[in-house]
Structure formats: C-alpha cells, structure tokens
Queue: 4 jobs
Job 1
Amino acid sequence: MKKRIVTISREFGSGGRTIGKLVADKLGYKFYDTEIIERVIEETGLAREIVEKYDEYATHKNSFLYSIAVNAGGDNYSGLSFANRVQVAQVNLIKKLAQEGNCVIMGRGADYILREREDCLNVFIRADMGFRARHVLENYGETDVKIEDRLRDKDVRRKVFYRSFAMREWGACENYNLMLDSGAIGIEKCADIICSIVKE
C-alpha cells in the first residue's frame, strides 16, 4: 500500500526536521511541525505560551488523565489540565491531518496515534552526539547551557512525553518502520531513502 503519511520522530539535533521538510518538498506532501501549534491554539483557545510549553512535552503525572481524555475522544476539554488540553487537541488534529492524507508529520507521538493505519510510514532519525552538537550550534547558536546538556534535556523530555501516553519507549526500533542515522548517512540521503520507500 502506498504510504500517504510519513511520521518522523527524531533526536534533538539530528536534523530530523530538515529531513522531514525535504521529504515533503520532494514528494509534494504537506508538512506539519510548528503548524500544529498554530492549529492547537485555534482549536483550544489557549494562549501561545501554554501551547508551546506543553507541545511534545509531558510529565508522568499527566498520563492517567491524558489516557482517560484520549479514550473518551471528542473535543470537550473542560475539566482537563492545560497539558492535557494541548495533548488531546494534538491527537485529534493529527488524526484529522492523516485523514486528509499526503503529509509529513513531525514528532508529537504521531507514529503511535496513527499506529493502526497501513498507509503510514513511521521513521526515527538519530545521530551521534558530535554530529548533533555541531548541527544545533550551527542552526540555533550557543546558550548558557552546555550543548551536551541541551541535547540530553530535549531528548529526555521527548521520551517522557512519548511514554506518558504511548506506554512504550521513544526511539525503540520495534516502534518504527525505518531508523536512520543522519550523521552517518547524511541529511539529503536520509530524505532520499524515505522518499524511495514512499514511492514504492
């Protein structure tokens, strides 16, 4: 079956977003990353600061309420914490985007949310610490925080977010159809590999 949806999870600094954008451009697919934040702000009426705070991040204390909310479905956010409102809105939106088809969706547990779809290719992008550090410094610059600590912090937060509702491990090979090392293969080549699979 043709893959109409590509989800890309990635280690921070691995170039995953760049790869996702390249894939979308090469295939003529829609690309969703920060666009999801804008749509969630519209959907929930929450302030940008709140949506950005909880986008792709969660804590274990949120997971039980989140599970109840997602299983209940619908767009009723009353009684939910800000974190859960953002997460439920993201789930609903990702399902809607997938239904529209032909798109690349970055992170946000989309591989898990869309796990029952056969037209979905789930990809994980990784790279070694040296490559990631260079990539982040070149694209985002330095901060007061050591680069290694920035990388670890982002990855840990993504792991917790993913585990909070998927109840499985972020980055574990069994959760994805394809895992690529962008440091070893190169960003452009990673995009080409993904496109070649989608086109088969």
Note: Confidence is low (pLDDT under 50) at residues 59-73.
Job 2
Amino acid sequence: MTYKNSGFTIKETELAEVLEISHQELDEVIKFFDSDPNDQWELKENNHFIFINKSIGIRLFSEQGAYAIAKYMDENAQKSFWDIIKEFLTKHKEKIRNAFISRKIQENCSSLTVRNNRHFLSKKDIVNILCTSPARFNKAFEDIKKTSNPLKIYEDFDDIDGVRYYSLSGFYKISNHLGSTLTVKDRRSWCEAIEIVGKKTFKLIIDKQTAFEEEVKSAMKKAKSRDKSTCQITGKKRDKFNQLINISAHHIYSKAHYPHVATCLDNLITLSEEIHNEFHAWNGGFQKPCTADDLIRFVNELYPDRYEVILRLNDAKKILKV
C-alpha cells in the first residue's frame, strides 16, 4: 500500500456541505438513524463513524457512513444525492492521497540540491517518494530511453559526487511513465498525481530553503561586523598591509547538520580563509559535520595559546545547548 489512514476522515461539516443541507439538518438525519433500532437504517459506531467528542456528539464518518446517509436521503427526498456523494468521496480520497504524497516528498527531500540552475534529488529519495523498488525504477529509466523523449544527462539526471541524482523534470518524466504503465490501480494513481502535487510541494520547500539561505547570509554578515572582520584565532584582518587575507564566517556547529542553529549569531565565529580551510582539512573535509568540540580540539592542538578562543567556544556550547 502507498498510504494508510484510519478510514474515518470525513467531518460532519464537510458531509453537510456536499449534501447541500445545514449541519443541523444533517444532525436530524443522524437522529433518525438512531431512533428505531429495528428499521433498515442503521449507523454503526466504529464502522460508519467514530466520535471525536461523544459528550456533544461530534463525529467523523467513514466512506460507508457517508454512503449510508446519502442512500437514505436518495430514497427519502426528491433530489438525488447518490451521484453527489460518490463524486465527493472520489475527490475526498484524492485530497487525502495528495496529502500523503506531499508528506512523502517532505520526508524524503534532504538530498535536494541545485546544480546548473536545476534542482536535483538523489535516486534513493525519489524511489522512496514513488514507493517503488530500485529495480522497478531502473526498468522505467531503461524503458524511457527507448522512447522519442529519453532522459537527458545534465538536464534530467546527473552523477554528483558518485551518486545518481535526478532533476525534478527527470523525476516527473519517470513518475508519469510509471503512472501510465503500472498495473495496480492505486499505485498508478499515486504516480499520476506526483507531478501536480510535487510542483506545489517543492515550491514550498524551495521557497523555504531560499528564505533560510538569506537568513544565514544575513547572520554571517552580522557576525563579521560583530568580530570587526578579524580572524578570531590569529587576530589578522584584511587591511592595506594584508590585502590577501579574506575573512569567512564559520559555523561552529555546521549548517548542514545543525540547521536549527544556522542563523544564530552565537553559532558563528570569523576566521581567515586560510584558518577556515586548515580547520576543515584537519577535521576531515567540508562535508564532514563539525561541532564546538571539534574546533576546541583544533585550537588546543594547533593554537594552544589562544585561551580566549576556547573560553568563547565553551560559552557558545552553553548558550546553544546542541
């Protein structure tokens, strides 16, 4: 299964609205169902509905419950509600499915990266979003290669640091292909909806990332101003006598691994570009996580007389509580 829910997802207010009656009128219909236990009309708790507040009678309905009420109204009113409720439930299921797709995307977008002005996702994340297997994904890729519109390298897919990534355009091509070729109906409808839901969801994610990066840049600029654009380890700064020195704002707890403190001024310290590069090389590279303890050890080992830097880093640990 691509997703699972409780089965009780339809609010009383939604059901009343689609049946074009008031909430109070719907309540009267429900009371009728409860009035005679011997007639053909019956609403069963935990089958047709559940209570979310039993003391005041607020219910959530299942599809079966919605159909039962629509069937009663269809047989006891001049206006037919049967087709109306079927259309509503179809759209209702689509909304729930789309919500699950959006959630799946949000839970599997940590690899989202920009390359050549395109957003790319790792194959692993895409396979998880599509709820498919790597083997089935590979088959879809090979099948598309045989069409008149195959996936293009650098445009639809690329290898980044030895890992296969797909752009959003490549992702949508594969999801559309699966949506038209899979045999299981719910799997097919899941993949068919990926592009529509994905475009909305990725816009939200990308907009949030863009705003986050702007906040980070602003914090880094403020940190340089606070530290008077001076390397806090060597005391060097760029001036007419040291024109080759560049100053970097270093995240004490790395931005990629500790994003919740990435915009915090206490998590930033200014270092000369030379010292910044030296630290990351000593620590195992720019891609490796770094913490206050890592920088403390670096200073202890390579610049052991800089007691004030150690004090500052220990203060940052206490403030940030990471």
Note: Residues 48 and 64 are 6 Å apart (CA to CA).
Job 3
Amino acid sequence: MLLVIDVGNSNNVIGLFSGKKLLTHWRIRTEWNRTADEYWVLIKEFILLNNVETETIDDIVIACVVPPLVPILQDMAKKYFSCDPLVVGPGIKTGISILYSNPAEVGADRIVNSVAAFEKFGGPLIIVDFGTATTFDVVSKKGEYLGGAIFPGIQISLEALFKHTAKLPRIDMVVPEHAIGKSTAESIRSGAVYGFAGMIEGMVRQMKSELGQDAHVVATGGIVDWIDSTTTVIDTLDPFLTLEGLRIIYEKNNQDRKS
C-alpha cells in the first residue's frame, strides 16, 4: 500500500492507496512543532482505525509547502515505516514541462494538481485549488505547465477581516441564499462566497482569453463546495485531486527508485 501526504499551510491531507484505489483519507492541522514521533502516533491511529496493518504500507510520497516539516516527515518514514519517502521537488519525474521563469518556485501542491488533472482530463486546463491560498494553474494542450495566479484564500480573508476591524464579527461559514445580506453576518458571508465566485469567474475568463481557447476547469480543495454552488465556470469538482496526483507521480518515479 502507498501512503500519500499532502502538507499544506493549514492542513495535512493524508491518503492510503491500494493500487489506484483511494481506500481512505484523513485531514489534520498543520503544526510546525510536531515531532516525527507525534506524526507517527497520529497517522498510526488513523491507519489502525481503518483495520489496516502499518506493516502493509510499502512506501510514502510527500508534497509539502512547509519546508521545516520535510525532514520531520522523512525521519518518521524511515524510523517507523522503514522507507525513504519520495518528496515532490526538483529532479522528480512529473510528465509535464514546467514553463515557469524559475521552476523551483512552483509549489509542490500546484505541480501535483497539474499532473493529476492532465492525466485525468487532458489539456488545456485551468485548475483552481481552494486552500489557505486560492491558486490557479494553467496547463496547455501539450501538457506544459504555463503558470497561474495566487490569491488569498476565503478563510484567511475572513480571519483578516475579523482581526483588523472593530465591529465585524468572526462568523461560521455557510453558503448564503442571497447576495444581498440582511444582517452583518449574512453580508460577510455574501462577500466571501459571491465575491470569491466573481473573482473566480473573472480570472477564468481572463486566462481563457490569454490562452486563446477554451479550457477545462477543475476545482479542488477543502472548501470547493462553497464556491461551486454560486458559479457556472467550474466543469469538474475533484476533492481528491492532490492525493491522486501524488499517487501518479509516485508511479512515474517508482521504477527508478526500486532499481
């Protein structure tokens, strides 16, 4: 079995694959000061809850946008799973060309998403990932990573609004029924959801214009459902796109690792 770990700024999303099948997945908060032993305890408990023996896990692949956590997860993998994990980064086979001014600057999660989306849907593509940041990534018809855009995510935008205003409250996030809010809380929700939906539509329209052709729009991330109900530009919802991408990248590199 393959354990895949997607380390984001806010959450770690962890999945367990048997072949190409995603058996289960978990989400835990990203804590910069967790030790390798603490990660082992957390992950082991999730694995055992699904009646899987840890000894059946053959390898681990990691995408991480929090650099200090990479050596900690590597240490955990070596100490408790007896494997040297594959870490997505420079030198890893992805199957796509990265046409960025400095390819090393592209976040591992953005590359993983692009690999998975191109493998599943072909190109051209626009991938929108709703995480701590909202990211847009564009892949050409030939499978070239062309670049994209980065925007503050909904949750950190709402947190900033609460922290930097005197009277606006911190709210629970639900999709509002109307754009015209009848209370402060409804107005904030409207701004977050319908405002972000408008931004998504405008960005997708601009990117398609620059591509000079239509593109399949794939959306992923923990809060994708909030936006999908308020816009028509998203063609496919794929909440496990990053986990699938990690599996695909592992398979592309597995032969070299075993030889």
Note: The longest strand covers residues 21-29.
Job 4
Amino acid sequence: MTDTGPDMTEPQGRVLLLANGRGPGRKLWKKLRARCAALVCVDGGADSARKLGDVPDAVLGDFDSASRAARSAFASVEWVRLDDQESSDLDKGLGWVAEKGWQDVSVAGALGREPDHALANIGLLMKYRGVLNVTLHDRRQDLFAIEGCWEWQPAGEMRVSLLPVFGPCTVTSEGLLYPLRGLKLEMGVKDGLSNRACGSRVRIECLGAPLLVCVERGGGGEPVFAPALAK
C-alpha cells in the first residue's frame, strides 16, 4: 500500500465516494457508475465495492474497517492513508477529493445503517458548502442542500421533502402539489415533509439557512443530483 492516490490532478466529471454504511442496490449502483468518472472507496467501502464486483480507483482512510479480503482483491489499487482521528472517514474522503480539485461528488453508503452516522454525514453538506457539490444517495432517496433558487424538471411524479435541518429558512415553491408561498420552515416548528413533484417543472426559492432536499426516486428511478456550485 502507498500513501499517494491515483493521478486525479485534472478531474473531470463526477466522482463517486463509497462509504462503509449500507451499500446501494445494484440498480442504483449501475446508474451512479455510469455517471461518475472515478470511484473512491472510504475504508470499509472497499468491501462493498468488492461485493458489487467493482474496482475502485483509490481507497482512503485509516484502514480499520477494510477486510483482508478487500485488501487482497485490490492489492494493485492505490491505498491512501488518512490518519486524522478528529474527523470521520467520510469527512476525510470529502476533504481529499476537494484537494484533488473535484467539485461534483456522489456519496453512496453514508445513510441507512446507523442514525448517528447518517446525521453526521448529512451535516457534512454544510461543512463542504461552497467547496463541493455533494449528493448523498441511498437505495430510495437522493439528498442534497440548496441555497437561493433551484429549478428541476422531475421525470414524473416523485415525493419531495424540504427539511430545514441547517436552520430556519423561508421557502417559496412552484410545481409542487402543495405550494409554499413564503413559508418559514424551522425544525420542530414547521417542515416541508412529503410534498410531491407531479411532472411539471419545479422551482424552489430558499432564503436564510440552506435547505435539505430529499427526493424519493423509488427503486428504479434515475438519480437526482445537487445543483451546480455558484460561479
């Protein structure tokens, strides 16, 4: 194993981080891999990649979770040791891809197994705000943060939740079944749980803190990605 990663100094497109949580289903995995130029596993995520029959471009972490089977299977892959004990493996992974110059990041395996880890991983959307364009994917939903105005053309009817987990915000929407007209959202007071996009173009304007958007694409739908970083 070496301490230098693959040649990713001129990144193009989207990078996929595979964390050590509940892995994505094979249908979603194929869709994500088709849209991502590189695969980076975060420690035990290497075992998920092996089970999915895939080979990462790099494996990151302190390697306390990756099995011997994964280490053997990916012996020719770059293993990048990141020993910072003050940060989670996913946090270190996001920091590493940011240093390499990537902006568009999809993360699988960060939700669905341990609630405390899932909440901490959602919090990383704020830490890397303005640096990375991060989307968290689980088997049924895509999660990302928006600020200002976001427009999206849904592929049919889809459940959408707007959650003010990062702080109070005022939201106005168009194209949702239940429109929000300058509605103040605040956790424990008022949220936008279980709204619906019905196929027409959606426009959401958010003032105040960033807003967490959760799109339920179902088991076979196409993934939805966070909007591009503001230039």
Note: Residues 1-6 have pLDDT under 50 and may be disordered.
